[in-house]
Amino acid sequence: MSGKKLFIDFAYSLGAVFFALLLGGVLIHLSGYDVREAYLSFFDGAFGNVYNLANTLMMTIPLIFTGLAVAVGFQAGLFNVGGEGQLYLGALASALAALFVRGLPPVLHIALALAAGALAGGLWALVPGYLKARTGAHEVITTIMFNYVGILLVAFLVKEYFKEPGRADQTSMIPASARIPELIPDSRLTWALFLGMLAILAVDYLLKNTSLGYEIQAVGQNLPAAEYAGIDARARMTVSMLLSGMIAGLAGSTMVLGVLHRFINNFSPGYGYTGIAVAVLARNKPWGILPAALLFGALQSGGMSMQLFARIPMDLMTLVQGLVILLVAAPALLEILAASRRRPKEVTPDGRDPDGHLQHQ
Amino acid sequence: MAEILTAIFNTSNLSATVRMATPIALAAMGGSFSERSGVINLGLEGMILSGAFAGVLGSYISGNPWLGVLLAVAAGGMMGLILAFFAVGLKADHVVSGVGLNIFALGLTTWLMQVIWKSRGTSEAVAGLKEVSLPLIRDVPVLGAILGTNSPLVYLMLILVFLGWAVLFRTPWGLRIRVVGEHPEAADTLGIKVHRIQYACVVLSGCLAGLGGAYLSLGQLNWFSMNMSAGRGYMALAANIFGQWNPLGGLLASFLFSFTDALQMRIQAAGIAWPNEVIQMLPYLLTVAVLAGAVIRSRPPAALGRHYEPGRNT
User: Fold this and answer.
1) Below-70 pLDDT ranges, chain A
2) Has domain A50-310 been given CATH number 3.30.310?
3) Labelling A173: which of A33, A69, B116, B185 has CA 20 to 30 A away?
């Protein structure tokens, strides 16, 4: 992709976010809140001091994983909306591996718990992936259904089998050997941030330098052509869904091993769904995930502070996410914006503009 | 076993099946219109949710549940207009914009609920719709128990579904819609305004889904709660596919989903010791199974999901 196109995409995405936030501001005003107070508490919560910045980065981590998961699916032409369910399965599996495997040294224990989370998340995505490849059942519907089933399933498992005695539906605390260490002392920001970057690096490498990555993209960009070239499209779809689910599972793992140190029912404020907005904003480019996740991490932590100090419900951020998805997904909006800045070109009857370029076929 | 069977197959359970099919069948019919015109509609979920919210809001403001129903239809239509604007007008990917719309609608309704009622759980209770009893039908032995007394929206749903089938398959309008979804180039050549038809169908699908939402909040309960649609929009789309993009087929498929919905209440009421969470999974698992089984033999409209630029593809 040319640098100019990249820049235009970037500027447009930024504009879309800005517009969505502006509309959010209008809603805040119309609802009778103080817009100034809202934005002040928002920016203070997101970037105000080292602790708040660490908090923003802490919320960025699961979004890197859920965003990357959606992006990997998109590369194969699949829309994995099931990140939320996969994340819960991954979180519980990691918590159980951390709780029930004892006597391992710290690094190994963490690695094992992460692997368990990735495996559980991957298996939870494998079923919709397999059904899509075999029967054509639309993956958006099946993965959403699996979100509901998965969240009910982990709730049931924790309540019936793994509940710590007491009122809340949660497991016991995991041992110290399975906890991902902090990056900044006394904050909840952990080394998992680098794990997220490592995942981005790995996916980038997979897509650019391996034949599997190439085939996955071929299936996503032109299914008939890929099949004609002899690629087993069904197998590639299934694999990319497995991969996508594994990455989403890790989002849950890093929350349990790094932040919560136990599994708690309903711990996620919708990281799986926010991952969709992250991937769409990043246009499914692995390295685009990082700034996009950071942006939505900031919206999340800023939104929480807004709720806490300005008493403004943070569900507004969900609305902003939906708007960003709609705006960024609309390519023609960019064309219209660009066209309004220059005079429309004349087109000769044979479909060429005055420069001789063919206009539309 | 016999207890379970009698718990399943009795008139009150079948009656609940018909009632609970209302929002799904209405939205599924919306899906039929939208997809027959070539626009994938994953935004049904957000349209139902907006309808459910607007229904309660209308009744809360005016005290008249029927004005609530009207507002619900308008809100659903508005969501349809937004989806059509992005998916048809701005050529956004239909699937991505549908999911975006659902997230937008979830945020908007949850936000407004807190602004208006200061609660994130449920709204205040409002005046709901009263059930009506049909004079002749209620005296027929089995049918009367199933269909005799219901919310007016249940009867409206049954009428609309038949009407929708007739419009789609027995009128020139329906033919135009189907031509647009099968072969937009041919439709354009015939002088049919492709985008106008698509806009109309997506807005109509929103109105229908919004009406379904009004049944959830004003017909079944009389309040709104966060994410009240709980996946019914996606079930409706699955029902629409299972029903072969035909409102009547969609209605029959909706009965499958509402039957498990009704069943889950029955099982709980009959004191059969299944864990609550497992029972709640049933409709969702069924949706996946139906979809996996249904799609193999189905043939969607040929131009479904495609963008069409009038006058350019000749």
Assistant:
1) 1-2, 340-361
2) no
3) A69
